[in-house]
Amino acid sequence: MKNTRAIMMLVLSLVAGVAAVMLAARWMGEQALGSQTRVLVANRDLELGQAITPIMLQEIAWPAATLPAGSFNDPKKLEGRVVRSSIFKGEAILIPKLAPEGTKAGLDSVIKDGRRAITVKVNEVVGVAGFLAPGSYVDLVVNIKDDRENTLSKIVLERIMVLAVAQESNRGDESRAKVVNAVTLEVTPQDAEKIDLARNIGTLSLMLRNQVDTKGNVTAGARRSDLIGSNDKTPALVVQAAGPASTATPVRLSMPLPRVTTEPGNRVEVIRGIQKASAEF
After folding, report:
1. Is there a domain that residue 14 lies in?
2. Distance between CA atoms of residues 248 and 254, nearest Å
3. What is the Cα–Cα distance from 66 to 142, expressed in whole angstroms?
4. Disulfide-capable partner of 206 in 58, 129, 135, 138 (CB 3.0 to 4.6 Å)?
5. Residues 94 and 141 in one domain
6. Which of the listed residues 106, 133, 167 is the one where a domain comes to its end?
């Protein structure tokens, strides 16, 4: 009898435990569902200047506690909006990634406030062998002649963003180099003036730089003398000695004086006592 009662108590305890676990799991699931919201993400890669349509969007569940600021959950609010920064597949659509409302699709819609777009003619060398892509950052080097007609190469602008390469504003396949004839840069109006002046008085070159490198480099420029040395120095005269070097004091040589000769004259000999003398006239 006692054994039967003990078994029944054990069974009841097991049933109560299972029921408690099930109820707890159900409660946690309900709490999790209640703390989620819906967010619109891109179902494909969206490029610069592209207008968004509903077929480009996908709605997914997103934890409410980590909801990103500026997100959307209504497709109608995104219809016709223009992409300012590249958006990748699965990435949430955020306000900072979009151009202002009412902006039309195109490259001009991605130019930031206070900035301008200027196109620079390039070749395979100037265009960094075709490795430039929209979104890349470059430094601008100009080769000119200074006031003394000496050749000078100098970095005039740093960290300029590439808006487009040729007529393409999407990044495409970045692993494959593509030689183009023009690059469009995003600059300030003052920098646009410098670029226009530089390409008219000299030649331009672009240097590709790391996207996360924001440090500036102040240089004095490179001149011809920095490569092969200055050619303004007058060469010193070299005198070759006739023999080995000597530390002896030099001897001053003088020519012998010429001997003066006189014509022989009259000679008179005078004798006075024991003294004898002679005189010439």
Report:
1. no
2. 18
3. 48
4. 138
5. no
6. 106
Which pLDDT band holds residue 50 (cuts at 50, 70, 90)?
Answer: confident
- Asked if the model's pLDDT at residue 10 lies above 50, the reply is yes
Given a contact cutoff of 8 angstroms between Cβ atoms, the answer to whether 135 and 171 are in contact is yes
Per-residue pLDDT, 246: 44
Residues 121, 206: Cα–Cα separation, whole Å: 11
Do 97 and 171 lie in one domain? The reply is no
Q: What is the pLDDT of residues 258-277, one digit of tens each?
A: 555 555 556 666 666 666 66
Q: Does residue 1 lie in a domain region?
A: no
134 and 42: one domain? no
Q: Do 216 and 140 sit in the same domain of this protein?
A: yes
- Single pTM value for the model: 0.53
- Domain enclosing residue 203, as ranges: 111-228
Total domains present in the chain: 2
Residue 6 sits at φ, ψ, to 5 deg, of -65, -40
> Are the C-beta atoms of 239 and 162 separated by less than 8 Å?
no
Q: Which of 51, 77, 106 is the last residue of a domain?
A: 106
**155-167 pLDDT, tens per residue?**
889 999 888 887 6
